[in-house]
Amino acid sequence: MRTYQFKKALTILVVLLMGFSFGCTTETPEDSSPSEAPAPAEEPEEPADDSATDPVTDPVTDPVTEPVTEPVTEPVTEPVTEPVTEASIEPSAAYWPCFHGPNGDNKSTETGLLTEWPEGGPELLWQVGGFGHGYSGVTIADGRIFLTGNEGEDDATQEIIYCLDIAGNTLWTAPNGSGWNGSFEGTRSTPTIDGDRVYAYSPTGRICCLNVEDGEEIWNVNVLENYESVHPTWAQAESVKLDGDRVICSPCGAKASVVALDKMTGDEIWTTPSVGEAKPGYCTPTICEWEGLRIVLTMSGQEFIGANAETGELLFTHPHPTEHDINATDPIFHEGRIFITSGYGTTGGEMLDLTVNGDQASVEVAWTNPDLDNQHGGVILHEGYLYGSAHKTGRGSWFCVDWETGETQWADRGVGMGSLTYADGMLYLMSESNKFGLIRATPEAYELTGEYTIPREGKGKTWAHPVVVDGKLYIRHGEFLYCHNVSAE
């Protein structure tokens, strides 16, 4: 009898629990449900031919196929977005309008940020998936986020520019000519925002100017074609630099090494003569002023170049040869000195003294440090010290180097070779293999205060440089964009 009563009570309890469970399940309204996100992409197998080998370790010996340059007008697909209601979107003061920020030094002015992270990393606010594949970072201004990605296949591949609101919802998309489907397919350049206009530079050389509000194209020009540039083996990766009323780029072609365009019309203002072997070097120009002379600093595949920012006159060149013609790290200028560096175990890091005499200028080597041979993850100068990851000579370690002497203060394998950004006394380090770390920006030691692993949802390496602005950390990996809360408040 007791057994029967026990079984009966147990049956009633199970029924009640099942009813409670079903009653707590809610259906998402059809008009607000997100589209189904694509399945995470698996890492591709190693290619059989050399044309798709990693430039980190392997030379490319096969001829590079010229990418298609005719724009394609296929419709683009909307990225998959975790929806955020308009009522929850707060006004944003975030301002990171170009590659490496408003000052070009990759340093955020944010304060009041976390100096340590909980286990598992900082809080994830939202993520968006379904973008076209790419390695470009994000830029942000006036409550809008911009990035680029590849869409389409084979000859129909396009570069697509995405405009999002500050909560990650798509506002509009626009094509920018042919995309890159060669070795390490995807976009490279980061859009540049200037008031009511945004500028993008495709991997096949097309610079376009769009209306920020709706993405309508105002003008376009293909500088690789116009200035007879050799298409780089791994596609054009430079982001345009704005200087007053000019758009500055360095196609490094047979007709010109550096070019200034009118930012309103795209018309040519000045050019700098071609130098050396006339091959693009992948880096974004730096603009500096020293002793009354404004100078554009940039890299070709084999040389460091200085041009008069007002006239385009060639001021100097300095040899900086690398394997594969890759000089992808932006020059750093500070108080009459310029630091340049490249990977592949060739030239490494060099400090140059800049001398100005009227409207002429020259450079001379002050010191060298072959260990800090940065590939393309960037180097940051903070309070007299350089921070960045090495490539071949430095065996992928993170380095701290004295700006004045070139002496190494510390080296640590850390999270692994990759890119970085700075904010509020901390360095945010992102390896090219999904690991992320937070360290103090100090010459004393590599001191890790937080780490986590980026979800392996996007394909390819984590090469897009991270951004910290308005208390948030933005990470782009392939087809996905993640937004984390790093505010301590």
Written description of the protein model:
There is one protein chain. The chain is built from two helices and 34 strands. It has a single domain, classed as YVTN repeat-like/Quinoprotein amine dehydrogenase (Methylamine Dehydrogenase, Chain H, 7 Propeller). The protein has helices at residues 2-23, 223-226, and strands at 80-81, 107-108, 123-129, 139-141, 144-151, 158-165, 170-178, 192-194, 197-201, 206-211, 217-222, 241-243, 246-249, 258-262, 268-272, 286-290, 293-299, 303-308, 314-319, 332-334, 337-341, 349-357, 360-369, 379-382, 385-389, 398-402, 408-412, 418-423, 426-431, 435-440, 448-453, 467-469, 472-477, 480-485. The strands form eight sheets. The chain has a five-stranded antiparallel sheet, with no helix packed on it. The protein has a five-stranded mixed sheet with strand order 2-28-29-30-31, with no helix packed on it. The chain is mainly beta.
Nutshell version of this structure?
The protein has 489 residues and is mainly beta.
Task: Please describe the structure with a list of short key phrases separated by commas or semicolons.
489 residues; mainly beta; Methylamine Dehydrogenase, Chain H; five-stranded antiparallel β-sheet; five-stranded mixed β-sheet; 38% strand; globular; disordered N terminus
